[in-house]
Amino acid sequence: MDNTNQTSVSHFVLLGISTHPEEQIPLFLLFLLMYAINISGNFAIITLIVCTPHLHTPMYIFLSNLALVDICFTSTTVPKMLQNIFSSTKAISYMGCLAQTYFFICFAAMENFLLALMAYDRYIAICHPFRYPVILIRMLCLQMVALCHILSHLHALLHTLLMGRLIFCADNRIPHFFCDLYPLMKLSCSSTRLNTLMIHTEGVIVINGALAFIIASYACITSVVLRSPSAKGKWRAFSTCGSHLTVVALFYGTLTWLYFQPLSSYSVARGRILTVMHTVVTPMLNPFIYSLRNGDVKGAFRKWRSKTCISFFR
């Protein structure tokens, strides 16, 4: 029997961040601005990397993929939220809700894996600098990115199929701006024990596994850097890792607070705030973190700007 016959709910109502009418226009303008900054900033990073030959290195291959994932990640939730702010129904179909859940989990997992790859890139570059061009060849980088995509889709498919087996009897109002896992599970009138178990086992393995890999990589990097006799060399090595560590802290900090807690202690109000940080604010900040702290990106941007100005005034 398919899922649509097991539940009496044909659609859900996304209540959004606030139900106060006077807050709707300010929220619309705020999220529209953040979404526009996210899209333009990440698109600029991708364009800059594609158009600059000396940035065609493993580190920037991973960074361009991260920027693309950030665009897709935010686009999974924000456009629907902006549409619903002025919608009288604020409805999303049952299958549309599952699709939104699938892509949200998929792009979150993809970002998780890419951050681990970027840590591995920094580990090879700092701990084995002379073997870097031999180890991280272009084909290997593309294969690793492809593997990240496959694992992300499998991870998302598992949790979406588990969500699809839940039964929703009457209440279809989601006190959130998109179909997130915990708010949906709260509405279910069937057992969510298996869903929670998989979040706290498979989900923990995927997220904490990548985080443990990142921590181990930076432990090795720190050990090598501290043994370096040159203070300048130490600072230069650490400066190349600063942007990545900042993004890692933002991503895993919000993700851990959101999902690695019992369903019974989940707070909808706190969850909405943390989800906004995780899905909108962090992807918006990533281009600025990498561009402001990265000399190669800033140099490429200055060259592109000077070329644009010269061609404009000719």
Reported for the largest beta sheet, the result is: 3 strands, mixed
Poorly predicted tracts of residues: 1-5
The Rg value, from CA coordinates, equals 21 Å
- Widest beta sheet: strand line-up: 2-1-3
Characterize the overall form: globular
Number of helices: 13
Question: What is the N-to-C succession of helices and strands?
Answer: HEHHHEHHHEHHHHHH
**End-to-end C-alpha gap:** 68 Å
Helix content: over 70%
Structural class: mainly alpha
Task: Give a verbal description of the structure.
The chain is mainly alpha-helical and 314 residues long. It has helices at 3-6, 24-51, 58-75, 78-85, 94-127, 132-135, 138-164, 181-187, 193-200, 202-226, 231-259, 268-292, 295-313; strands at residues 11-14, 91-93, 173-174. A three-stranded mixed beta sheet has the order 2-1-3. The model is unreliable at 1-5 (pLDDT under 50).
Entry keywords:
disordered N terminus; mainly alpha; about 325 residues; three-stranded mixed β-sheet
Write the layout of secondary structure elements.
Layout: H1 3-6, E1 11-14, H2 24-51, H3 58-75, H4 78-85, E2 91-93, H5 94-127, H6 132-135, H7 138-164, E3 173-174, H8 181-187, H9 193-200, H10 202-226, H11 231-259, H12 268-292, H13 295-313
Parallel strand pairs: 1-3
Antiparallel strand pairs: 1-2
Helix pairs in contact: 2-3, 2-12, 3-5, 3-7, 3-12, 5-7, 5-10, 5-11, 9-10, 10-11, 11-12
In short:
By secondary structure, the protein is mainly α.
